[in-house]
Amino acid sequence: MSDKNALNNATLALQALYLEKKGAIIDNAPDFLNEKRDAALDSFLVQGVPSKKVENYKYTNLVEVFDRQWDVVASKDDANIDVEEVFQCDVPDLDTFTILMVNGWYYPKNDLTALPEGVTVCSLQEAFAHHKDLVEEVYCRYTDHTKDPVLSLNGMFAQDGLFVHVAKNVILERPLQIINLMNGDSDRMCSQRNVVLLEQGSQAKIAVCDHTLSNQAFVFNNMTEVLVKENASLDVYNVQNQNNQTINLSGLNIEQQSNSNVLTHAVVLHGGVIRNNLTINLNGENANASMYGISVADQEQHVDNFTTIYHSKPHCVSNQVYKNVMSGNSEGVFTGCIHVLPYAEKTAAFQQNNSLLLTETAQMNTKPQLIIDNDDVKCSHGATVGQIDEEALFYLRSRGIGEHEARLMMIFAFAHDVLSNLRIEPLRDRIDQLLERRLRGEDSPCDSCAIECNS
Amino acid sequence: MLKIKDLRASVEGKQILNGLNLEVKPGEVHAIMGPNGAGKSTLANVLSGNDKYDIIGGSVDFGGNDLLDLSPENRSREGLFLSFQYPVEIPGVSMVNFLKTAVNEHRKYRNLPPLKAGDFLKMMREKKELVHIDSTLTNRSVNEGFSGGEKKKNEIFQMAMLQPKLSILDETDSGLDIDALRIVANGVNALKSKDNATIVVTHYQRLLDYIVPDYVHILYKGRIVKTAGKELALELEEKGYDWIKEEMGE
Ligand SMILES: Nc1ncnc2c1ncn2[C@@H]1O[C@H](COP(=O)(O)OP(=O)(O)O)[C@@H](O)[C@H]1O
Ligand SMILES: [Mg+2]
Predict the structure, then answer these.
(1) Which helix (H) or strand (E) holds B183?
(2) Whose alpha carbon is nearest atom 9 of ligand 1?
(3) Which of A398, A410, A417 faces B76 most closely, judged by CB atoms?
(4) Are A439 and A297 contacting, i.e. CB atoms less than 8 angstroms apart?
(5) Which residue in chain A has the smallest CA separation from B168?
(6) What pLDDT, in 10s, does the model give residues B144-190?
(7) pLDDT of amino acid A86
């Protein structure tokens, strides 16, 4: 809270940016989003850009990120590039519905005519126009702009995003693949707001790939709100592969009803400063959430996975496994909050964070946080930070495997088991390959996401 | 093939090998016996290049190369193999990937192209039969969850895959029942030729019923204190190691 201090420069700069661009932002956004903007500004000003004194942002210095002049374009024209020219897809095994987003905007040439009946995918703007009731069921219902300054910023600046709706009992076999592209000839901040609604008994799998098409610095503030109703099942696989000037602030806020099933994967390959806020509220009995993460970082990269799991109802299970492979001067953070509410008996909540530090200058901070207000729960958390097992390394070398290769085998073994739960096989293989190339230093953030791109 | 001269080595500041001499020629089988803590595993680790052990002095010639100057991987590629007393588990590294990488690294060293997938699988099948290793084991991670006996068989299986010139079997017999012992010994014997040699490190004479040594050495306090033919093993079995201690004037 900044009540005791004057607003820091970063906060003032963002306030000024908002006031300067407000006209253009509002002109290019639906009323529904506009109605909440000024309130979002107010809550942003109350919180300010969090300094390291703010507990939830202790390890990720956003003041440093925002203590400079950022620009926002605020116009749909920003998405008016010929993506096909710079971005070609060649997906051998991965049969998906591909949806491009450019700088937070829905790409106008997305062709989704092949979507099966009962599945709606469109821009958030269009959703407000044609499916207002559905959007209203989710938008800001479980997400509170006053609770987090990054969220407030999203409320102030986001003008568009993606809307996904899967009707009751509809099973979407082919995954949706959302490719978030950042592009431009100058540094800028892009905000995106997504709403996903899975009706009772429906199923969907979504792969999300975050990319930069140009070498500018971007702030990507991407907030996704999700409601997964009774007996529905959702997978979200996020691969973050942006240039190392870019700051990725991703929020995924999921509300689960009874007997629902959610699986998330956060795969971090490249990016400058990455902060993933994952919040899941198990708000119905027998709901199940599995959350996995693998982050590979080197140089000056900063990766912060911040998870909050609410066990609000009895008989729910949550399981988190986050792994980090850190080298260079990179910094990793894992904060995992498990909050078991008073009536959530027979809760099972597990959390684990394992990290490999490959250089002496790489860092890892792990902070589990358990608040348990019920006696009848099974909870566990564990964290390890270590180096490569020298004995195992010697074993491999004693069989003729060169030291470099032997190290890679061990690192890869450590990293890749997180992916074994990924439920789309071609995607798993593809991410496995990406991970291996990343660990071998053979890739670059210009490479594609889970699809082959020849940009 | 192997000439060890006055080898002295320490681990964690404690000197273990105190001037050890040993010569092994192609086609020979040497047994090294000795009480616990004598330095048998230390010798095996020093020869294979484990950098936890520090060389204080002496020299080791392996087929004309200064062995102590080679990296562990190059010692292996030059034809040295250690069957570990305690093979490590390596979760996440699959047996198949491990073996394929090892075999192909050996081939690369000899300027040979990598084995074709089919040829590699065929080779694996053949060698698996040699040690009667359970097929499912090769679908797992290296040694992960293997029983003691399976781990030892897996060592001999790897030896068969890599076809070394000199194998050092460090207590490969301990923890094996008689059937497994026989299988392991048969495997070792099947791989024997006039061009390669074996050093069998063991506590017990029973393995030597199956792998018949040309020489038996007694390693005691970091030195080879006695060398004789296979009858020495029987003598040790009968009299125990106290006899050596007495003979050493203790
Ligand atoms: N890695 C190690 N760290 C510390 N001490 C060791 C290590 N390896 C061996 N030693 C010590 O060296 C001595 C010889 O051990 P070792 O070579 O394993 O004997 P052996 O195999 O003949 O039973 C013992 O005193 C043992 O404690
Ligand atoms: Mg030993």
Answers:
(1) helix B178-191
(2) B42
(3) A398
(4) no
(5) A398
(6) 999 998 999 999 999 999 999 999 999 998 888 888 889 889 989 99
(7) 61
- Give ∠ CA B167-B168-B172 in degrees, rounded to 5: 115
- Determine the 3-state secondary structure of B173 from DSSP: coil
Whether residue B82 and residue A397 make contact (CB cut-off 8 A), yes or no, is no
The preferred substitution site among B7, B8, B10, B11 for testing ligand 1, maximizing ligand atoms within 8 Å of CB, is: B11
- Quick one: B110 exposed, middle or buried, by C-beta within 10 A (0-12, 13-18, 19+)? exposed
Six-digit token string for B53? 């052990």
* Residues present in chain A in total: 455
Domain range spanning residue A171?
A: 82-439
CB contact under 8 A, A413 and B109: no
Count of domains in chain A? 1
Find where tokens 């004037």 sit.
Answer: B249
Structural domain includes residue A334: yes
SS3 A58: coil
For A17-31, b/e burial (b = at least 16 CB within 10 A) is: bbeebbeebeebbbe
* Residue A427 placed within a domain: yes
Q: Which residues are CB-contacts of B112 (< 8 A; sequence separation ≥ 6)?
A: none
Which residues, listed in sequence order, are joined to residue B83 by a DSSP beta bridge?
A: B169
Q: How confident is the model at residue A442 (pLDDT cuts 50, 70, 90)?
A: confident
Tracing tokens 């019923």 back to the chain, one arrives at B209
Count Cβ–Cβ pairs < 8 Å, chain A vs chain B: 77
3-state secondary structure at position A357: strand
- Shortest CA distance to A128 belongs to which of A36, A11, A243, A216? A36
Query: Within a domain: residue A77?
Result: no
Task: Name residue, tokens 């940016």.
Answer: A17
| Model confidence pLDDT, tens digit, residues B37-77 | 999 999 999 999 999 999 999 999 999 999 999 999 999 99
- How would you class A382 by CB atoms within 10 Å of its CB: exposed for 0-12, middle for 13-18, buried for 19 or more? exposed
Indicate the pTM of the whole model: 0.89
Per the listing, tokens 């030896």 go with B159
Q: Do B73 and A409 touch (CB under 8 A)?
A: no
Which CATH number do you get for residue B132?
A: 3.40.50.300
Quickly tell me which residue has 């998870």 as its tokens: A307
Residues A161-212 have pLDDT tens digits of 999 999 999 999 999 999 999 998 899 999 999 999 999 999 999 999 999 9
- How large is the ipTM? 0.97
